[in-house]
Design a protein that fits this description.
Length: 255
């Protein structure tokens, strides 16, 4: 795994590079094909190890090539690199919707991996599910697991579950981050400093998760521990929003 290439130089490529950097993981070559020059320059500025690939084919000459583009252009991208990928290449797709079977129809290797990446890999605390091509050998699977180990928790699952993990893991933080930000602002309006509000929210959230999952209480019993529920009247509306938005998105990203 001495050389890696990324086709796409956006957010997820940055997350991976930061995770590797934090653990001082070095490669003989890191090439990125990103047609948007501003995006590539920003990435290369943060990670000087990155070298510019002039084409998707050049990036795909690496031992491990990451397909870091959106689902609508995955098949087109695979078509471009089909002549470069050989039986020893590892192809790692980071997109939902496009199955291993479809990927295999374009490239001549059984070393195909699908992964739903997690933003927390940026701090080496990812929760990253993997699915392998059924013909991929045990030795090659072990190498991929070792490659991803610095990014956090990596585990193997059935391929048909990946889109579910995308909804309740990959995208999960976006359902809450803006609320934490707003609560910090509200805390400051009540007299807390920014630091006090942030510390309070951080510690309360951490322990609330422990209470929910480790107390041995039922969900109803946990929720009953706090008698005042300031936004209780909005709970059904919030639940309906979650169901309509997330299940609607699931219909779009499932194979």
């Amino acid at each position: 795994m001495k050389t890696i290439g990324f086709i796409g130089g956006g957010r997820i490529t940055k997350i991976f590079l930061e995770g590797f950097k934090n653990k001082a993981i070095e490669f003989g070559s890191v090439k990125v094909y990103e047609p948007n020059s501003e995006t590539f320059d920003a990435l290369a500025n943060d990670y000087p190890v990155v070298k510019k690939a002039e084409s998707a084919e050049e990036a795909a000459q690496a031992k491990v090539v990451f397909i870091a583009v959106h689902p609508p252009v995955v098949m087109e991208t695979l078509g471009k690199i089909a002549g470069v990928v050989n039986e020893n290449t590892f192809v790692v797709s980071l997109a939902p919707k496009i199955t291993i079977e479809k990927i295999a129809s374009k490239v001549k290797t059984a070393n195909i991996v699908r992964m739903i990446p997690n933003a927390t890999s940026y701090i080496n605390e990812g929760y990253n599910p993997l699915a392998f091509h059924p013909a991929m050998l045990k030795k090659e699977k072990k190498q991929i697991k070792k490659l991803f180990k610095p990014l956090g928790k990596t585990f193997v699952t059935e391929e048909h579950k990946l889109e579910g993990y995308a909804l309740i893991s990959g995208m999960l933080p976006t359902y809450f981050w803006f609320q934490w930000q707003e609560l910090e602002a509200i805390g400051q309006k009540t007299g807390l400093s920014k630091e006090e509000a942030a510390k309070t929210i951080r510690n309360t959230l951490k322990n609330a998760i422990k209470l929910w999952y480790k107390s041995g209480l039922t969900p109803e019993e946990v929720m009953d521990l706090i008698p005042v529920k300031p936004i209780g009247e909005n709970e059904e509306e919030i639940k309906n929003t979650l169901n309509s938005k997330l299940l609607g998105l699931f219909e779009k990203i499932k194979p």
